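ok so i was messing around last nite and threw this chain in just to see what happens. nothing serious, just curious
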Amino acid sequence: MVINYKQADFEQVLAEEGVDVVLDMVGGDYTPKNLRLLRPDGRLVFINAMQGGPAEFNALEVMARRLTITGSTLRPRLAEFKAALAAAVEQHVWPLLAAGKFKPVIYQTFPLAEAAAAHQLLESSTHIGKLVLEVTQGA
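result:
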């Protein structure tokens, strides 16, 4: 299921079913919404905080439903860790992509020479899906 957060409130759409894991790139006021969506024993994983770090939530609710809140960022990790992670992705994720079991939504492809335009679109947040920079051989 795909939910366009600009057209629908993802919390309302998913409230009845709930989810087991949330990968949160936003933080801020998304945090309590994400926690409310989690099923018992669910996990909230912060991978960015575009709205900033501070967030309010009910710790008693977290304890009552045995929720796990964690987070990670790759930037400060050692090169060896990043290499091992890349190898694991190649081993476990690439085969799923090659088999067509997981398909990213590509919004638009840009030649490398138009990277600035791609970045401008990225910053505008007017797209849904991924932006791809195309690198040709010899470039």
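not much to say yet. The two ends are 38 Å apart (CA to CA).
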